[in-house]
Design brief:
233 residues, 31% helix, elongated, two-stranded antiparallel sheet, Ribosomal Protein L13p, Chain: A, three-stranded parallel sheet, alpha/beta
């Protein structure tokens, strides 16, 4: 330990002088010069610098991209099951079918569901499916089957509950669900808002065969109006 030299701090009087001698002897190597000189434009030609362009999300008609369309779903004639239809309705309400979809933005469309009284279920779900509610008081748990709910509140309420369970549980849930307009019969006041192809509605509500209508007067009016219009090709 005694043979080892004492290392002194550069700030000390002795260490500072030794540190200065070492820094004076060290020389930085010179950078090699480039063999090719920088290019210069010819005489008489002006050069301009192009500013860097940045992408903007406001390019284009964003109001048209976020516009809402109205879609019609015929529950009486759709061959899909009740759950498949509810899934497609929830996707349309969220706007997942659009290229401008964003989870935090309300960019969905409107959905008009008619014929909810004739919704189709598979298996014994109509009798075995139960809905529960609780008033937060002990012993006040209530349950009701799907068949009884359809007879008491209608098929539109069953559709709303199914779609509500498929929507994300956030602040946009009630706003998206409010754009679902469900009706028991086939009449609705949103005929002029529906999506049209060639000036005509792409779907026409028709009375379901084999079912007794719960709104016969309104269905008769709609049938007379559909006869007066030109048939959809």
């Amino acid at each position: 330990m005694l043979n080892n030299p004492i290392r002194r701090h550069p700030a000390s009087p002795i260490g500072n002088s030794i540190f200065k001698q070492k820094t004076q002897t060290q020389t930085q190597p010179e950078k090699p010069s480039s063999p090719h000189p920088p290019l210069k434009p010819p005489d008489g030609i002006r050069t301009t610098t192009i500013p860097r362009q940045t992408m903007s999300i406001n390019i284009g008609r964003t109001s048209l991209a976020y516009s809402r369309s109205w879609h019609l779903v015929d529950m009486g004639h759709d061959q899909r099951s009740f759950g498949r239809i509810a899934t497609s309705i929830a996707t349309t309400l969220m706007g997942k079918h659009k290229p401008t979809y964003d989870p935090s933005t309300d960019c969905g469309d409107y959905v008009v569901a008619v014929g909810c009284a004739y919704l189709k279920t598979t298996g014994d779900k109509r009798m075995k499916k139960k809905y529960y509610s609780h008033s937060t008081r002990p012993g006040h748990l209530q349950e009701i089957t799907m068949d009884r709910m359809i007879r008491k509140f209608g098929g539109a309420e069953v559709l709303r509950r199914a779609v509500s369970g498929m929507l994300p549980k956030n602040r946009l849930r009630d706003i998206r669900l409010a754009r679902l307009r469900a009706f028991e019969g086939f009449g609705h006041p949103y005929k002029e808002n529906l999506v049209k192809l060639g000036g005509k509605h792409y779907v026409k509500p028709r009375p379901a065969a084999g079912y007794v209508s719960k709104t016969p007067v309104q269905d008769a009016i709609n049938m007379e109006q559909s006869k007066s219009e030109a048939p959809v090709s």
